[in-house]
Specification:
three-stranded antiparallel β-sheet; TIM Barrel; alpha/beta; single chain
Amino acid sequence: MTPSPALQRLGASLRVSNSCSQRVLSATVPTPWRPVISVSLSAAEIPTTTTTVSQTRWSSHAPMGPVSSQQTRKPITISTLRNMYKKNEPIAMLTAHDFPSAYVADSAGMDMVLVGDSLAMVALGMNDTNAVTLDDMVLHCKSVTRAVRSAFVVGDLPMGSYEVSPQQAVQSSIRLVKEAHVQAVKFEGGVDFAPTIKAVTTAGIPVVAHIGLTPQRQNALGGFRAQGKSVAGALKLLEDAYAVQEAGAFMVVLEAIPAEIAAIITKQLRIPTIGIGAGDGCSGQVLVQIDMTGNFPTGRHLPKFVKKYANVWEESKRGIEQYRDEVKNRSYPAKEHTYAIDEEHVAEFQRLVDEQSAKKSQE
């Protein structure tokens, strides 16, 4: 049997391998996408030309392709962060909750990526952070660390995963490090949680402390309210800051604190402070990515300290609406979005289908 010209061209572009009485054509694509196309043919149908094809294709469900900035940046370590602090270089931190959000944060040059428990609201649709579980955090931290190549990744310990005892905090922190591959953990609390910080750091896990507005304790604080707005309140914050520093935290987040108070506290410490609603006197800043990229509908409440740097929601909505319209009017997919096939194959396929239909109609 003489193979058709189309089949000869197909055979010339694939690697031919023998398998028992049949020969199998297989084409492989480099990682991370490695489908194997196998076609069983009789020996007579297979041309003798053998060629290996090597080409990279990214499918819609595969991890994203490489980004040049990720390849050139050196990984940021705790020593890197300490050197930045010594040189008075501001530290840029941003939250991420999944592979795409972490990928873009790392590619944009973030020094630190925080997998914050705020994902309870921005990723899981919960009303506050208190409902998110340690299992939730492990899952999301895993997806983030798969994407990040350079930034220093910190994972939040959620409510209920560290308050019972220092030993509980150590066990929870070990899970985030061993299973989710974060480089440090963050949890809320000042003086009262100094023994917990000491226990976790003694276990060899770096800790980022969090004082000021502590969202997990919003019910005790009377809601999401700024802290340190009185002399007594400011002194309590300074006491908390000293306590977490002496307990071994290598960094502390200051949330919703008057800028002047945060600046004074920052000057009194030997560790970096990361502000969120705490002014520009801190050693660095952190924002929730969903907030600062504008990935939310008009009318959503934003904290006073958030600056909207983009309008991801509107751009995404515009694109999705255009896609919907093109599906409805059949302008998508166009010819350039489809895979080519020889007309003779189409004709032969149609002939066989017609034959089968004719036989079924006669039965």
